[in-house]
Specification:
The complex is a heterodimer of chains A (about 400) and B (about 180). Chain A has about 400 residues and is mainly alpha-helical. Chain A has 18 helices and 8 strands. Chain A has a 3-stranded antiparallel sheet with strand order 1-2-3. Chain A has a 3-stranded antiparallel sheet with strand order 6-7-8. In chain A, strand 7 and strand 8 form a beta hairpin. Chain B starts with a helix and ends in an 8-residue tail after the last helix. The chains are: A mainly alpha (about 400), B alpha/beta (about 180).
Chain lengths: ~400, ~180
Amino acid sequence: MTEPLEVNYQELKHLVSERALKGETVLLNMGPQHPSTHGVLRLLLELDGEVIVNCVPDIGFLHTGIEKNMEAKRWELAEVMTDRTDYLNTTGNNLAYCLAIERLADLDVPPRAQAVRVILVELERISNHLVWLGTHALDLAAMSMFLYCFRERESILDIKEICSGQRMMTTFFRPGGLWRDIPADFEIAIRRFLRMFPGRIKQYEALLTKNPLWMDRTRNIGKISADDAINMSLTGPVLRGSGVAYDVRKAQPYSGYEQYDFIIPTGTHGDVYDRYLVRMEEMRQSLRIIQQALDKLPYGPFRSNNRKYVPPPRAELGTSMEAVIHHFKLWTEGFKVPKGAVYVPVESPKGELGYYLESNGGNQPYRIHMRTPSFVHLQALPLMCKGHLVADLVGIIGSVDIVLGDCDR
Amino acid sequence: MSEEHLNTTLKSIKERFGLHDSDLMKYPPTLIVAPEKIIEVSQVLRDEFGFNFLCELTAVDYWPEEEPRFNVIYGFYSHANNVRMALRVPLNGDYPSLHTLEGVYRGANWHEREVWDMFGIKFEGHSDLRRILMSHDWEGHPLRKDYPLGYEEPQFTFNYDEIDKRKHHGRYEEA
């Protein structure tokens, strides 16, 4: 075991300005255990008084080697790990993973499964935005928002629980469909939520949108122009806040999004306030999508009938020898995905979530790479926070909406 | 319209640089590019064909194969035309290097750091090529296929040799 190397000052020299070397500016360490960095994010700040001259994000504290671990697991077992990356968007990660396998294996998904997927993913989007809103407002000293948001999020977690038995890490979507059909009270629970939630969004907006304190803390803070945002590969609400109407759901629809009527809200200034407005409107649009999907929720199978990938129903095992063989094969060696590679993007609440999957024809993935929005967005943080106060940095981090599990994987 | 744009792009890029389709990639349409041409090709893609957005940058290790040992994958998206395409760059040898794409897409910075960290592929001219996910004193590059997962794999008759090869690799030295 070699001695751990000290962090070398020379190593970081090129990241700070000349003035820091002369001692005119101060280098300050923020995090990784700072409550407002939304996880284990460390920032090296170069400060001129209270003003940020430069900011160097340091990530990797939550790196758990998920991609490496997935390469050593069978396809269906590796899915469990996709939940664990972004714990606020678990079904969204499942969806991206399943879509990638389905694209690779030309696996069909019945319409019912697609509609249920859309409903759950949109609920997840609302739940993610609620956590974002609660913690973001808490960072900017609006304590009560946090309590309201988590109250509403609870009802979404309850809906996930009646579907899958789990509140967060559901792994409810499987390649070819769903794990099981939705229960009878699914629709009732969602209709109740749809009745309740629009009023709640109004309450949040009444508390924040025209609140002078909120506007002072968020307007003209953390600006990023559309060109910069595209060049830095930003997506999701951050990009839309800068006025670019890019949403994978509209641009390259998946899972039947082309059937639903919704708009992509965009901002104009690209500041923290516009990102807030975009996310608030997105919650309303998600409600619209859920309403439409629920109204025309088709009947039929919830899983593909392709027995090479999807286990046969329990009832068949007693009568069909073939079903027994398929069942045995699937539970001992898993399914095999044909050789090939694919990159499938979906619109996660934070931005474009892309799965690069490569198969060598075996029952384990050869390579999985997740293009996670938090990772990409965090590298634009220095661009957004230059020239602002340290107190605003907290608001900017909040507005980018990062999850460090998503970022470090 | 977008499909048309994609087809004309692929056709003219292929003719101009003499590239081939990748038959491995199912989606998006992918071309295989030699490592020394990647800057040129991506510059043309961005400026002439509107692929203004780098959506993905990752690598794959094909160990124990040596030629190519790695593939680096670049994914592009065009906001104006709403199309996706990708480039694959095959790299030979254990410690290959590649020119950085940072000058064309600034967003490539962290992606390239991640590829360096995980695969040990050097990006020449990169402004800040440090480890990003692993700690700065880490040895080895974890996503390489000859890097063990951290436990001893059980050997059976059908995969005895395959695992045996992997076992005695030792932590390799940096070139």
